[in-house]
Write a structure and sequence with these properties.
By secondary structure, the protein is mostly loops. Helix content is 12%, strand content 0%. The chain has helices at residues 25-28, 60-65.
């Protein structure tokens, strides 16, 4: 489930914020006949660009290689 809050017009970033113009119901709604999964339906940046939530997974080996100590962001393997 994807939810967003609109704070238009003061803080509206039209290039990243889903709205009725760049993400209309006719193409963004899963039940629509013209549904376009590239807008919000994939695990990759869509209409929200770099702000689109994307999930990354580590293999078991990558996870175990992190060890039991404290982690820093630089310890996390780069996603590919």
């Amino acid at each position: 489930t994807m939810r967003w809050m609109s704070v238009m017009p003061e803080w509206h970033l039209p290039q990243f914020a889903p709205d009725e113009y760049n993400c209309p119901w006719v193409t963004a709604d899963w039940a629509a006949t013209q549904y376009d999964p590239s807008l919000v339906g994939r695990n990759s940046p869509g209409v929200m660009g770099p702000y689109h939530p994307v999930i990354h997974y580590l293999t078991k080996e990558q996870f175990e290689a992190l060890g039991n100590g404290k982690l820093a962001p630089t310890d996390i393997p780069q996603w590919q």
